[in-house]
Amino acid sequence: MPRISRTIIAGAAALAFSITLNTSPAAASVSRGYIDENAGAQNDFSDEATLWSGSSYRNSNSVGVVQAILYAEYIINAVDVDCFYGSTTTWGVKELQKKLGFTGNDVDGVVGPKTWRKLDDRLIEGSIYSDSMRYIKYRATNGTTPNLFLRARVSGGTYMFKYYGGYFGGNEGWKQALYSSLSGRECS
Protein backbone atom coordinates (compact mmCIF):
# COMPACT_ATOMS: atom_id res chain seq x y z
CA MET A 1 0.00 0.00 0.00
CA PRO A 2 1.50 3.34 -0.96
CA ARG A 3 2.57 5.65 1.85
CA ILE A 4 0.07 8.38 0.90
CA SER A 5 -2.85 5.91 1.11
CA ARG A 6 -1.76 4.78 4.59
CA THR A 7 -1.51 8.41 5.68
CA ILE A 8 -5.00 9.18 4.40
CA ILE A 9 -6.47 6.07 6.04
CA ALA A 10 -4.70 6.82 9.33
CA GLY A 11 -5.92 10.42 9.23
CA ALA A 12 -9.49 9.34 8.53
CA ALA A 13 -9.36 6.82 11.38
CA ALA A 14 -8.03 9.46 13.78
CA LEU A 15 -10.78 11.88 12.74
CA ALA A 16 -13.47 9.23 13.21
CA PHE A 17 -12.06 8.38 16.64
CA SER A 18 -12.03 12.01 17.76
CA ILE A 19 -15.62 12.50 16.56
CA THR A 20 -16.66 9.41 18.51
CA LEU A 21 -15.04 10.74 21.69
CA ASN A 22 -16.66 14.14 21.36
CA THR A 23 -20.32 13.10 21.57
CA SER A 24 -21.42 15.52 24.29
CA PRO A 25 -23.77 18.28 23.18
CA ALA A 26 -22.19 21.68 22.62
CA ALA A 27 -23.26 24.43 24.99
CA ALA A 28 -24.47 27.69 23.53
CA SER A 29 -23.08 31.00 24.69
CA VAL A 30 -25.27 32.36 27.47
CA SER A 31 -24.18 35.96 27.69
CA ARG A 32 -26.83 37.33 30.03
CA GLY A 33 -26.86 34.48 32.52
CA TYR A 34 -30.61 33.85 32.32
CA ILE A 35 -33.31 32.82 29.88
CA ASP A 36 -34.37 36.12 28.39
CA GLU A 37 -37.20 37.42 26.27
CA ASN A 38 -37.31 39.18 22.95
CA ALA A 39 -40.10 41.41 21.71
CA GLY A 40 -43.20 39.24 21.75
CA ALA A 41 -43.13 35.60 22.73
CA GLN A 42 -41.41 34.27 19.62
CA ASN A 43 -37.68 33.56 19.37
CA ASP A 44 -37.25 33.73 23.13
CA PHE A 45 -35.56 30.33 23.31
CA SER A 46 -33.48 30.64 20.13
CA ASP A 47 -30.26 31.64 21.91
CA GLU A 48 -30.43 29.47 25.01
CA ALA A 49 -27.83 27.01 26.24
CA THR A 50 -27.97 23.29 25.62
CA LEU A 51 -29.30 21.59 28.74
CA TRP A 52 -28.64 17.95 29.55
CA SER A 53 -27.56 15.81 32.50
CA GLY A 54 -23.86 16.44 31.84
CA SER A 55 -24.02 20.17 31.09
CA SER A 56 -22.57 22.80 33.37
CA TYR A 57 -26.13 24.13 33.80
CA ARG A 58 -27.62 20.79 34.92
CA ASN A 59 -28.35 22.17 38.40
CA SER A 60 -29.84 25.61 37.73
CA ASN A 61 -33.14 27.43 37.58
CA SER A 62 -32.94 27.30 33.77
CA VAL A 63 -33.65 23.57 34.11
CA GLY A 64 -36.75 24.55 36.09
CA VAL A 65 -38.20 26.17 32.96
CA VAL A 66 -37.80 22.91 31.04
CA GLN A 67 -39.30 20.98 33.94
CA ALA A 68 -42.24 23.42 34.07
CA ILE A 69 -42.87 22.61 30.41
CA LEU A 70 -42.69 18.88 31.19
CA TYR A 71 -45.21 19.48 33.98
CA ALA A 72 -47.51 21.39 31.60
CA GLU A 73 -47.32 18.43 29.21
CA TYR A 74 -48.35 16.01 32.01
CA ILE A 75 -45.05 14.19 31.65
CA ILE A 76 -43.70 14.80 35.16
CA ASN A 77 -45.32 15.73 38.46
CA ALA A 78 -44.95 19.07 40.24
CA VAL A 79 -42.71 17.46 42.88
CA ASP A 80 -40.27 16.55 40.08
CA VAL A 81 -39.62 20.24 39.37
CA ASP A 82 -36.39 20.58 41.34
CA CYS A 83 -34.08 22.40 38.87
CA PHE A 84 -31.81 19.36 38.59
CA TYR A 85 -31.37 17.64 35.22
CA GLY A 86 -31.30 14.03 36.34
CA SER A 87 -32.72 10.78 35.00
CA THR A 88 -36.36 11.87 35.43
CA THR A 89 -35.78 15.04 33.41
CA THR A 90 -33.81 13.17 30.74
CA TRP A 91 -36.65 10.65 30.40
CA GLY A 92 -39.21 13.49 30.41
CA VAL A 93 -37.42 15.41 27.67
CA LYS A 94 -37.37 12.26 25.52
CA GLU A 95 -41.12 11.92 26.01
CA LEU A 96 -41.57 15.60 25.15
CA GLN A 97 -39.44 15.26 22.04
CA LYS A 98 -41.70 12.42 20.88
CA LYS A 99 -44.78 14.60 21.47
CA LEU A 100 -43.11 17.34 19.43
CA GLY A 101 -42.66 14.94 16.51
CA PHE A 102 -39.01 13.97 16.93
CA THR A 103 -37.93 10.48 15.90
CA GLY A 104 -34.79 8.36 15.88
CA ASN A 105 -31.60 10.00 17.13
CA ASP A 106 -33.43 13.29 17.69
CA VAL A 107 -35.11 11.70 20.73
CA ASP A 108 -32.02 12.12 22.88
CA GLY A 109 -33.18 13.73 26.14
CA VAL A 110 -31.12 16.86 25.41
CA VAL A 111 -32.65 20.33 25.17
CA GLY A 112 -30.50 21.66 22.35
CA PRO A 113 -31.18 24.04 19.47
CA LYS A 114 -33.75 21.78 17.73
CA THR A 115 -35.74 21.22 20.91
CA TRP A 116 -35.54 24.88 21.94
CA ARG A 117 -36.87 25.89 18.47
CA LYS A 118 -39.84 23.54 18.79
CA LEU A 119 -40.58 24.87 22.28
CA ASP A 120 -40.19 28.45 21.07
CA ASP A 121 -42.96 27.86 18.53
CA ARG A 122 -45.31 26.97 21.41
CA LEU A 123 -44.95 30.26 23.34
CA ILE A 124 -47.89 32.66 23.41
CA GLU A 125 -47.83 36.19 24.77
CA GLY A 126 -50.51 36.52 27.42
CA SER A 127 -52.06 39.26 29.51
CA ILE A 128 -50.18 41.91 31.45
CA TYR A 129 -49.62 40.86 35.04
CA SER A 130 -48.34 44.18 36.39
CA ASP A 131 -46.61 47.31 35.08
CA SER A 132 -43.41 45.37 34.60
CA MET A 133 -44.52 41.84 33.84
CA ARG A 134 -46.50 39.92 31.25
CA TYR A 135 -47.59 36.31 31.22
CA ILE A 136 -45.99 34.09 28.63
CA LYS A 137 -48.00 30.93 28.16
CA TYR A 138 -46.80 27.63 26.86
CA ARG A 139 -49.25 25.95 24.48
CA ALA A 140 -49.02 22.28 25.37
CA THR A 141 -49.32 19.61 22.71
CA ASN A 142 -52.86 18.87 23.95
CA GLY A 143 -53.86 22.51 23.27
CA THR A 144 -53.99 23.79 26.86
CA THR A 145 -52.20 27.00 27.85
CA PRO A 146 -51.37 27.02 31.57
CA ASN A 147 -49.87 30.19 33.07
CA LEU A 148 -46.47 28.72 33.80
CA PHE A 149 -44.17 31.57 32.80
CA LEU A 150 -43.87 35.19 33.68
CA ARG A 151 -41.56 37.61 31.91
CA ALA A 152 -40.21 40.55 33.90
CA ARG A 153 -39.53 43.49 31.60
CA VAL A 154 -37.99 45.57 34.39
CA SER A 155 -35.12 43.11 34.85
CA GLY A 156 -34.28 42.91 31.15
CA GLY A 157 -36.92 40.45 30.09
CA THR A 158 -35.92 37.67 32.44
CA TYR A 159 -38.08 34.58 32.22
CA MET A 160 -39.50 33.39 35.47
CA PHE A 161 -41.35 30.20 36.25
CA LYS A 162 -43.74 29.19 38.98
CA TYR A 163 -42.18 27.07 41.68
CA TYR A 164 -43.48 26.48 45.16
CA GLY A 165 -41.35 23.91 46.94
CA GLY A 166 -41.99 21.38 44.19
CA TYR A 167 -45.66 22.32 43.94
CA PHE A 168 -47.17 24.90 41.61
CA GLY A 169 -49.63 27.17 43.36
CA GLY A 170 -50.13 30.19 45.58
CA ASN A 171 -48.78 33.67 44.97
CA GLU A 172 -45.27 32.78 46.04
CA GLY A 173 -42.71 30.71 44.25
CA TRP A 174 -41.83 32.70 41.14
CA LYS A 175 -38.20 31.93 40.33
CA GLN A 176 -35.90 33.66 37.87
CA ALA A 177 -34.62 31.35 35.11
CA LEU A 178 -30.91 31.76 35.89
CA TYR A 179 -28.06 29.65 34.54
CA SER A 180 -25.99 29.97 37.71
CA SER A 181 -25.37 26.72 39.58
CA LEU A 182 -27.42 25.91 42.63
CA SER A 183 -25.89 24.47 45.77
CA GLY A 184 -28.70 22.00 46.42
CA ARG A 185 -31.29 20.08 44.46
CA GLU A 186 -33.98 22.69 44.79
CA CYS A 187 -34.88 25.78 42.79
CA SER A 188 -33.87 29.03 44.46
Describe the structure.
The protein is an alpha+beta fold and about 190 residues long. It contains 4 helices and 5 strands. Strands 1-2-3-4-5 form a 5-stranded antiparallel beta sheet, covered by helices on one side. The longest helix is centred in the first third of the chain and has 19 residues. The radius of gyration is 19 Å and the shape is globular. The termini are far apart.
Topology:
Blueprint: H1 3-21, H2 61-72, H3 87-99, H4 113-120, E1 123-128, E2 133-138, E3 149-152, E4 158-162, E5 174-176
Antiparallel strand pairs: 1-2, 2-3, 3-4, 4-5
Key terms:
4 helices, 13% strand, alpha+beta
Quick take:
With 188 residues, this protein is α+β, with helices and mostly antiparallel strands.
- Quantity of strands, as a count: 5
Calculate the terminal CA-CA distance, rounded to whole Å. 63 Å
Helix content: 25-40%
* Uncertain parts: 6-28
- Biggest sheet descriptor: 5 strands, antiparallel
Overall 3D shape: globular
Order of helices and strands: HHHHEEEEE
| Portion in strands | 5-15%
Number of helices: 4
